[in-house]
């Protein structure tokens, strides 16, 4: 079917998205091409998904090889790619056990159910409160969107799951006053993604760990966006010198192939006994084979070091743009999760910058209306960063004109 266009979307798709005008049809590394053959630099990465760029040859080879062997089995059986990937995740992190899903939302759903189940079995049904944070984002299922701290995503879907408290992110005093014996879990993003690329303070993360230990609550880190090398560490918790009890991963885990995972310490994982949770496609051989290869590449120390080095170049270039046009209040985030917060004069105009960048053949993102977000391939070259930043400067010039 070659006669589809952007207008086809409006004719046949549910209108919950509003995609931009172009339709990409081919990708290679940090480059994309649309139906007309126009070339773009991709600093969006499918919202931090394409951690190794588009169509990385080793991921393509892994997919082709597994595609000729085995695609799907029910959970009556296990499979070699799932076991190999789980072993790598256990060996490379704090975790003892892994549960595979298809997405970040599913991984978080599993984590929140696990926390409630663990608390109920060990302490009683009254220990059910989940503490989350305002402006957080944890998925689009009814449970995960309720745990998320953005009311715009829950409006119209009431009644919502109960027993969820939302506090100010990075507010230690408020956290200390809120946690109680009835708290079963505290869940946070090491860097709030959709909430504006806001990193957690080290002291705040340490306090969450301390309070979870004190009140027998499960510490859950949502690393859907920060995990798999995005911050320059394999997972962002490694920046803080603490270990969570449960961690969720997706997005970059499959390098573009849909897969999610919940990682857990043994005593918490034991709560999900046979039949308590499941996923038809979770842990399928295709997804796990691709993710296993992605893990091998991303966990290479040279790749992780490169992320930190490229971060410096992004900050330098953004500072140079800002010195000329005065549009950003600050640059924040970690590694190649880059957030350029707009200053007071340009509040609410992040989409304008995103659209202007596309007109300059550069793909970037928003993190809310006030933050320009970039999450390029971890393998982006310095030359590509230079080219992309030159395009961004032209876009900024157009917006401020």
Automatic annotation (TrEMBL):
Domain of life: Bacteria
Gene3D superfamilies registered for this protein in UniProt: Aspartate Aminotransferase, domain 1 (3.90.1150.10), Type I PLP-dependent aspartate aminotransferase-like (Major domain) (3.40.640.10)
Enzyme class: transferase
Alphabetized PROSITE patterns for the sequence: AA_TRANSFER_CLASS_3
GO cellular component assignments: cytoplasm
Cofactor list: pyridoxal 5'-phosphate
The protein, known as: Acetylornithine aminotransferase
GO terms for MF: identical protein binding; N2-acetyl-L-ornithine:2-oxoglutarate 5-aminotransferase activity; pyridoxal phosphate binding
Protein EC: 2.6.1.11
Subunit organization: Homodimer.
Example of a GO biological process term: L-arginine biosynthetic process
Keyword Amino-acid biosynthesis assigned: yes
General remark: May also have succinyldiaminopimelate aminotransferase activity, thus carrying out the corresponding step in lysine biosynthesis.
Pathway the protein acts in: Amino-acid biosynthesis; L-arginine biosynthesis; N(2)-acetyl-L-ornithine from L-glutamate: step 4/4
A Pfam family: Aminotran_3
Annotated family: Belongs to the class-III pyridoxal-phosphate-dependent aminotransferase family. ArgD subfamily.
Keywords recorded for this protein, A-Z: Amino-acid biosynthesis, Aminotransferase, Arginine biosynthesis, Cytoplasm, Pyridoxal phosphate, Transferase
Swiss-Prot/TrEMBL catalytic activity: N(2)-acetyl-L-ornithine + 2-oxoglutarate = N-acetyl-L-glutamate 5-semialdehyde + L-glutamate
Residues the record lists as binding N(2)-acetyl-L-ornithine: 140, 279
Binding site for pyridoxal 5'-phosphate: 137, 222-225, 280
Modified residue annotations for N6-(pyridoxal phosphate)lysine: 251
InterPro entries: Ac/SucOrn_transaminase_bac, AcOrn/SuccOrn_fam, Aminotrans_3, Aminotrans_3_PPA_site, Class-III_PLP-dep_AT, PyrdxlP-dep_Trfase, PyrdxlP-dep_Trfase_major, PyrdxlP-dep_Trfase_small
């Amino acid at each position: 079917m070659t006669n589809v266009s952007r207008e086809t979307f409006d004719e046949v798709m549910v209108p919950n998205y509003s995609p931009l005008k172009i339709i990409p049809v081919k990708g290679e590394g940090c480059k994309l091409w649309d139906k007309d053959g126009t070339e773009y630099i991709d600093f969006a990465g499918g919202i931090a998904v394409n951690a190794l760029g588009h169509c990385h040859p080793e991921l393509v080879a892994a997919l082709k090889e597994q595609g000729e062997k085995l695609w799907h089995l029910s959970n009556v059986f296990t499979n070699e790619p799932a076991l190999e990937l789980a072993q790598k995740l256990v060996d490379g992190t704090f975790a003892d056990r892994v549960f595979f899903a298809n997405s970040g939302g599913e991984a978080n759903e599993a984590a929140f159910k696990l926390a409630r189940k663990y608390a109920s079995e060990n302490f009683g049904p009254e220990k059910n409160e989940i503490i989350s944070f305002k402006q957080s984002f944890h998925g689009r299922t009814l449970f995960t969107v309720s745990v998320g701290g953005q009311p715009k995503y829950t409006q119209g879907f009431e009644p919502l799951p109960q027993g969820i408290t939302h506090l100010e992110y990075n507010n230690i005093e408020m956290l200390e006053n809120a946690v109680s014996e009835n708290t079963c879990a505290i869940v946070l993003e090491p860097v709030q993604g959709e909430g504006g690329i806001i990193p957690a303070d080290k002291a705040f993360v340490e306090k969450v760990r301390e309070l979870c230990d004190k009140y027998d609550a499960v510490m859950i880190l949502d690393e859907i966006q920060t995990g798999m090398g995005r911050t320059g560490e394999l997972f962002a918790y490694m920046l803080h010198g603490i270990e969570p009890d449960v961690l969720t991963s997706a997005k970059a885990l499959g390098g573009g192939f849909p897969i999610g995972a919940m990682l857990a310490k043994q005593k918490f994982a034991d709560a999900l006994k046979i039949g308590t949770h499941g996923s038809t496609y979770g842990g399928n051989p295709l997804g796990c084979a691709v993710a296993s290869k992605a893990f091998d590449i991303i966990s290479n120390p040279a790749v992780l070091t490169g992320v930190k080095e490229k971060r410096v170049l992004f900050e330098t270039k953004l500072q140079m743009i800002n010195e000329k046009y005065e549009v950003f209040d600050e640059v924040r985030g970690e590694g190649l999760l880059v957030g350029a917060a707009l200053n007071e004069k340009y509040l609410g105009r992040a989409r304008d910058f995103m659209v202007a960048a596309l007109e300059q053949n550069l793909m970037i993102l928003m993190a809310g209306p006030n933050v320009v977000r970039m999450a390029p391939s971890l393998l982006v070259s310095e030359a590509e960063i230079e080219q992309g930043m030159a395009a961004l400067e032209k876009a900024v010039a157009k917006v401020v004109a």
